[in-house]
Write a structure and sequence with these properties.
single chain, 13% strand
């Protein structure tokens, strides 16, 4: 029941549908998938026309690797087209998590049970491999090579094509490497500029901002915003976002890190492990309509992630690569809970320390310890 266009340039086929034969979109009972539809943005209005003619749910799947922003799109799609962000595969989706602990169950306050024997060597390999579907399903393939190929395509063509403005590939590469060095940190624009200026002395923050905007539209980077509740706090709160790539394999590839190199550089390993966990937490949280934020106040108190549900429930998460830091992380979470509760009268639904492996359990102080390799939505 699917329709495939054997056309060397699918944009031509899409344009013919949009301009000449929108009725083709009404055929069949199964969803019609149109990949990279943003290359021919007229298809959006054609789909809207078809839905108005026959308002059945689930008729079309429009997939694309960039955010479309084109004057040829005359309708927002409101009430007809729902947007879903497809991230790289989480560990649960790739089969690298046992899935014994559900994120959705943590706010219920019940005991948890799970166990994984995955060691740091396995976690290092999962970081460099990334969540790319082909790499995740081929265990004999070094995913870092795929990430490098993707980054090369981004720098040389995609970042200019996304908004039609030519960009210097060398500067894109410098920016990507700077972002990799500042992964999991709240690096300011001035920090990125100073980092890049070692090679490019005439860079302006406006130029860097334009490049960052293009990378966001390509979903290469997705910064972690500050928690809106905390921003309204009586305590001084840092409102800057945390720099994040969409997948931990990208900064690993940019820094030329293999699993073996990560195992002897625990500082970088910890930052990229945090990146891996945030990616998975976003996937699991958004499956339930929740959002993932960061918390960092002016006194240095912070939580790596705040997960907030639409109904106002929230939980705080600390991510630690080393089990010896578990007690310190739990103490930080308890202090965050106390501060937020005292200022906003909003009790945390759960507190959790995310670790690489081991036993999932609830501590006597109520803080969960959850290996990322046991977690699912």
């Amino acid at each position: 029941q699917s329709v495939f266009f054997q056309d060397p340039d699918h944009r031509d086929a899409y344009r013919r549908i949009a301009a000449e034969q929108p009725s083709l979109l009404l055929r069949g009972d199964r969803p019609l998938l149109l990949d990279e539809w943003q290359d021919a943005p007229q298809i959006w209005d054609a789909v809207r026309f078809a839905v108005d003619r026959e308002p059945r749910p689930g008729q079309f799947i429009l997939t694309g690797s960039t955010v479309a922003d084109d004057p040829e799109i005359r309708h927002s799609g409101t009430g007809r087209i729902a947007r879903v962000v497809m991230r790289t595969m989480s560990l649960a989706e790739s089969g690298d998590s046992t899935g014994e602990v559900s994120l959705q169950s943590l706010p219920l306050g019940r005991p948890i049970d799970g166990h994984t024997t995955a060691g740091l060597e396995t976690v290092a390999a999962l970081i460099t491999r990334g969540g790319w579907p082909v790499s995740a399903t081929r265990q004999d393939e070094f995913g870092g090579a795929r990430a490098k190929d993707y980054l090369t395509a981004i720098a040389e063509s995609d970042v200019s094509r996304v908004d039609g403005v030519a960009k210097n590939p060398r500067r894109v590469q410098l920016l990507l490497r700077s972002l990799a060095r500042n992964e999991s940190t709240p690096a300011a624009m001035t920090t990125l500029r100073a980092d890049m200026a070692l090679d490019e002395s005439d860079l302006s923050t406006n130029t860097i901002g334009a490049y960052l905007g293009a990378l966001r539209r390509l979903y290469v980077i997705e910064d972690q915003p500050a928690w809106p509740l905390a921003v309204r706090s009586k305590t001084a709160i840092r409102t800057s976002a945390i720099r994040r790539f969409c997948d931990p394999s990208l900064p690993a590839a940019l820094l030329d890190l293999s699993p073996d190199k990560l195992l002897v550089d625990f500082n970088t390993f910890g930052l990229l492990f945090e990146s891996l966990c945030i990616r998975d937490l976003r996937v699991y949280a958004e499956a339930h309509g929740a959002s993932v934020y960061a918390y960092h106040d002016g006194r240095g108190l912070e939580a790596d992630a705040i997960i907030e549900w639409p109904d106002g429930r929230w939980g705080a998460v600390e991510i630690k690569l080393q089990s010896t830091l578990e007690d310190r992380a739990a103490d930080t979470l308890l202090r965050v809970r106390h501060l937020v509760h005292s200022q906003h009268n909003g009790e945390a639904s759960f507190l959790a320390v995310i670790t690489p492996s081991g036993i999932a359990r609830r501590r006597p102080d109520g803080v969960y310890v959850v290996p990322i390799t046991t977690l699912t939505a």
